[in-house]
Amino acid sequence: MRIAEPTVERLIKYHRLLISMKQGNSSVVSSRQIGDMLGIKASQVRKDLSYFGEIGKPGVGYHVERLCEHIEQILSSPKVWSVALVGVGNLGMALMGHSVFQSYKFEVKALFDVDPEKVGQNIMNIHCWHIDDIARVMKENDIEVVILAVPAVEAQTCIDKAISSNTLKGVLSFTQAPVILPKGVLFYAVDVFVELEKLLFFLKEKERNIS
Amino acid sequence: MRIAEPTVERLIKYHRLLISMKQGNSSVVSSRQIGDMLGIKASQVRKDLSYFGEIGKPGVGYHVERLCEHIEQILSSPKVWSVALVGVGNLGMALMGHSVFQSYKFEVKALFDVDPEKVGQNIMNIHCWHIDDIARVMKENDIEVVILAVPAVEAQTCIDKAISSNTLKGVLSFTQAPVILPKGVLFYAVDVFVELEKLLFFLKEKERNIS
DNA sequence: CAGACTTTGCTAAATATTGCACAAAGTGTC
DNA sequence: GACACTTTGTGCAATATTTAGCAAAGTCTG
């Protein structure tokens, strides 16, 4: 059974919320409460949660810990993914420092850059290689996922080198350049520019509709 | 006429692409070419572009410069938005350094943080205030948009202070915490964690379906 | 333990979004 | 200028996603 992307996205958010609720005082939570906290309709929450069998109790709600484990199981990986971070500039460093990067689901095995100040160094205990070594290092470390945080103009070149490792399975890109990938390689992009433009666009539209 | 969010998102991407094509050699481009470069179906491209009147020529395609201006007009703002960046940590600095922030559509008028090393300083020529001053500074500078780049635990507190300025109209959040806003304030979030989790989830699913 | 609530799981309807297919329009060649 | 292409714009069908509504199940109160 295939799960739709928006559903997965919400499951991730429920999971995150439940983790923070585990330290709270109530051991039970209703779809309404979850929905209100995340800005999602309660019926949507129920539909998402009932996707994998009945887990809530009518008249009561969902048991926080149980539900959390339940979602954890759905989202869980059978293995720890090996990841490479390409581009150790401001953004790359910000990512590395981010708590997200202390996950049990993946491990950043190698860094890549072109800056001679960084290449050869250990940064936050991870070795930084020259981007030209990426195919070899990826093969040696079985790296299947690349996080791309380089300037737009270099994105495609870097990706092409990563592709030549033949181990690449997924890319999370932070650059705004469109990149061409062999089909079969999953691609997700975090596009700051697009989000900001969208915000400004709909702000404009809203003001226009008022006046 | 209301434009759907996915459409706006694609328009932004077309615009970005067209800008880079303006320096290229061909002055004309087809919906097929645009689609291939961005991973979008040609029919979708045509539908998006014809939303605002006929602008292409059958048998030829779209005139790059003309199309670019056309989209620019759709996306254009009647004013330059005043923006505050809340949180001048790694991520905030990365954003400031990003080329996205040299836009003619908005201007970062003020920075906010709690770190005594930063408060009172000018960072990249913009003054950094203590977060407690945000309501006053926002009012004085007519700041309507806040970019939130603080640790999750501080997100709500910061936003509450920004709300009390009464000038807040939109938020672009980089924190993973859900925040409660008065309705009427637009909210967009860039959620690194969610994107990464989605990537890993669908990678897992894909491998599971193969084996 | 009856009656008033609450809340789930699910089905069906409503919306939103994408993709197809084709006529009409433009280009190029001989 | 006839014929073979290419490519747009668009109506309609197909998919995807969200929302509403409700019976059934569980809780609480007196």
What is the number of strand segments of chain A? 9
What is the CATH architecture descriptor of the largest domain in chain A? 3-Layer(aba) Sandwich
> Helicity level of chain A, as a percent range?
40-55%
The global form of chain A is globular
Mean pLDDT of chain A: 94
Number of domains of chain A: 2
The span between the termini of chain A is: 48 Å
Question: If you compute it from the alpha carbons, what radius of gyration of chain A comes out, rounded to the nearest whole angstrom?
Answer: 21 Å
How many helical stretches of chain A? 8
Which oligomerization state do the chains in this entry correspond to? Answer: homodimer
Strand content of chain A: 15-25%
Instruction: Determine the structural class of chain A based on helices, strands and strand pairing.
Output: alpha/beta
Strand arrangement, major sheet of chain A: 5-6-4-3-7-8-9
CATH classification, class level of the largest domain in chain A: Alpha Beta
Written account of the structure:
Two copies of one chain form a homodimer. By secondary structure, chain A is α/β, with parallel strands linked by helices. Helices cover 44% and strands 18% of the residues of chain A. In chain A, the strands form two sheets. In chain A, strands 5-6-4-3-7-8-9 form a seven-stranded mixed beta sheet, with helices on one face. A two-stranded antiparallel sheet of chain A has the order 1-2. In chain A, helix 5 links the parallel strand 3 and strand 4 (106-113). In chain A, helix 1 packs across helix 4. The longest helix of chain A is centred in the last third of the chain and has 19 residues, at 192-210. At the A-B interface, helix 1, helix 5, strand 8, strand 9 and helix 8 of A face helix 1, helix 5, strand 8, strand 9 and helix 8 of B. Chain B binds a DNA duplex (30 and 30 nucleotides) through helix 3.
